[in-house]
Amino acid sequence: MTGVIRVALVDDQALFRAGIRMLVDSQPDLEVVAEAADGREALAVVRATRPDVVLMDIRMPVMDGLAATAELLQDADPPRIVMLTTFDLDEAAARAIRQGASGFLLKDADPEFLLAAIRTVHAGSAVIAASATRDLFAHFADAAPRAVPPSYGALTEREREIFALAARGLSNAEIAAREFLSEATVKTHISRILTKLALRDRVQLVVFAFEHGLA
Fold first, then answer.
1. Most buried in the list 2, 125, 131, 148, measured by CB within 10 Å?
2. Closest Cα partner for 37 from 19, 60, 15?
3. pTM of the full structure
């Protein structure tokens, strides 16, 4: 079937993985293609199966999710990685996102929210749990913002306006409605912003805004 989002599950609790697999595989547009019980095993199975999205537990034996995520993100064309954590203000989740992870989810999230999160991160059109992500970085942000890099000066006035809205966690659809633009136009703006700032995705844009005092 074309258009299916391929998912890998990495968690040391077999029962948790079984439940998530059943949930994901119940959806016509989603498929679990790999599982791993620790970060070391994850490196092998993710590289072998090349999923679109990886759900990665942070705390595991042998190799934790932080180390595995850091290694996978060094690969050419890495998957989107979503960190799984048990509490919302998790410094490890913030560190993983700074490394390049595409967001985080609470392990007790509602099933429908988890499914929506997989689709959201794959589409790249919004930030998972935008308000929670902003709270996470507000909590763990450095006291003194870094100097704004010259690349930010390369943004046009319109791109800075779109940047500010995206940094607040607004989706393409929300920005389009607010600015009276088409979603395609917003997507083009976001793509140019990410390219100019050398950012991988929208959650990295949120991190950039917080770290440079632009949020």
1. 125
2. 60
3. 0.86
Nearest Cα to 205, choosing from 158, 157, 162?
Answer: 162
In Å, the largest CA–CA distance within the chain is 51
Instruction: Give the tens place of pLDDT for each residue, 72-118.
Output: 999 888 999 999 988 877 788 888 888 889 989 898 889 999 999 99
Domain 144-211: top CATH class: mainly alpha
**DSSP code string of 29-72:** TEEEEEEESSHHHHHHHHHHH--SEEEEESS-SSS-HHHHHHHH
Task: Centre a 10 Å sphere on the Cβ of residue 111 and count the other Cβ atoms it contains.
Answer: 13
CATH number of 5-123: 3.40.50.2300
Taking only the tens place, the pLDDT of each residue in 167-201 is 988 899 999 999 999 999 999 999 999 999 999 88
Residue 6 DSSP SS3: strand
